Amino acid sequence: EAGVTQSPTHLIKTRGQQATLRCSPISGHTSVYWYQQALGLGLQFLLWYDEGEERNRGNFPPRFSGRQFPNYSSELNVNALELEDSALYLCASSRLGGSYQETQYFGPGTRLLVL
Amino acid sequence: DQQVKQNSPSLSVQEGRISILNCDYTNSMFDYFLWYKKYPAEGPTFLISISSIKDKNEDGRFTVFLNKSAKHLSLHIVPSQPGDSAVYFCAASAQQAGGTSYGKLTFGQGTILTVHP
To answer: N or C, where is chain B less crowded by C-beta within 10 Å?
Structure first.
C-alpha cells in the first residue's frame, strides 16, 4: 500500500511570493492534515481537511490556506511568503476524521526555503 | 504554552539494553496518545498508540505506558537496536463532545535516541 506522498520535495521561493505544496493521502483515507516543523521547533498543526471541507486550523495567519479535492488530495498555499515560513511542511492522512482516536500517517514532507 | 513536553532532548543506550523515553502533558482533555519515530529528511513514522482507558499497550519490542493521574507516558524499547536511532516524538489528541476529533495532534519537542552497537 502506497503511503502519503508529497510534492515537491524541496521548494525555494523569495519573500513575498506564493508557494503551493501538494499531498496525496493513503488510498481510502479521507482526512488530510498539514503541519509545519520550523527549525528548532516541534511539529505545529496547521490545517485539517475532511470530505473537502476545512474542519480546523491552527494558530497561523490567513495567508496559510488550502483545499481538498474530490479525490481527497490536498493543496497547501502560503501567500506573501516571509523568511520565517522556511520550514518542513508535513502532510498526514487518516482513514476517518471523525474519531479522536484516528492515527495520522505522515508523508516525507516538503522543505520550503524562503530567501 | 507547551502542553506536551519531552524533557530529555537526547538519550544514549547500548545495543540490547532497554530504552525508556518519557513524555509529560498538561492538558487533561488529552485522551489518545501516539509515539512517532523520525529519521532525518523523512516524515514521522507511527510506532504505537494508547487510549486513556488503558495503562499499557504492547507491540513487539515497543511498549507504551500511561499514567493518567501523573499525566505521564513512556515508551519502552526492548531490546534496543542501532536501527532504532532516530528522533522520537510523543503526540496527543483531545476529543470534542460526542467523541469526535479536533483533528489536531499536539507534539512534544522530540528526544534523540542513539543506540550504540
So the answer is: N
Please list, residue by residue across B50-65, b when 16 or more beta carbons sit within 10 angstroms of its beta carbon and e when fewer do. Answer: bebeeeeeeeeebbbb
What Å distances lie between residue A64 and A39, A75, A82, CA to CA? 18, 11, 11
Tens digit of each residue's pLDDT (9 = 90 or more) over B2-19: 799 999 999 999 999 999
CA triple B9-A32-B59, angle to 5 deg: 50
Cβ(B51)–Cβ(B103) below 8 Å: no
What 8-state DSSP symbol labels residue A26? P
Q: Between A41, A90, A99, which is nearest B99 by CB?
A: A99
Residues of B within 8 A of A48 (CB-CB) are: 102-104
Tens digit of each residue's pLDDT (9 = 90 or more) over B85-103? 999 999 999 877 776 778 8
The burial class, CB within 10 Å (0-12 / 13-18 / 19+), for A14 is: exposed
- Residue A20 burial class via C-beta count within 10 angstroms: exposed 0-12, middle 13-18, buried 19 and up: middle
The residues that bridge with A105 in the sheet, in sequence order, are A93
Q: Enumerate chain B positions whose Cβ falls within 8 A of a Cβ in A.
A: 31-32, 34, 36, 41-46, 49, 51, 89, 91, 93-96, 99-110
Question: A41: burial class by Cβ within 10 Å (0-12, 13-18, 19+)?
Answer: exposed
Assign A97 a pLDDT band (cuts: 50, 70, 90): low
Please say whether the dihedral angle defined by the alpha carbons of residues A79, A84, A90 and A93, taken in this order, is positive or negative: negative
- The DSSP code for A104 is P
